[in-house]
Design goal:
The protein is mostly helical. It has eight helices and two strands; from the N terminus they run H-H-E-E-H-H-H-H-H-H. A two-stranded antiparallel ribbon has the order 1-2. Helix 5 packs across helix 6, helix 5 packs across helix 7 and helix 6 crosses helix 7.
Length: 134
Amino acid sequence: MTALNMTIMMVALLIGCSSAFQMISSPNNNAIQRSSSLNMAAKAKGGGPRFDKATEKWIVTDPETQGPEAGYDLIGSALRAGPVPVIQRIINPEQYEQAVLKYMAAEGCDRTEAQGNMDAYFENPQGEFALRWR
């Protein structure tokens, strides 16, 4: 390999890696705007999951977008958050489902985002995710 080729590769590598460490301007503002638009969209579509007082459980109002099929499977949980959420989903599937539906209703987000956040919570209940909810 010539010195010129080596220099070009090093510059390309440095440029590619440097974008990973850029400061994002006001990430909370973007999250708030996204969450607000999702809440408005959910209200316009008829809302997210709702709480049934008779059964004391959260129920889906649109199975295609809010049901378990709309999210990811056990392998998706394992890849995103490790084995703890997978074990939680296997041992307590009803508790996991209720947690996801409650999060969807509270935040006005889609099922994939709710599952990701609940997987993060189950992986580390006293970590960063839990601090945001206190």
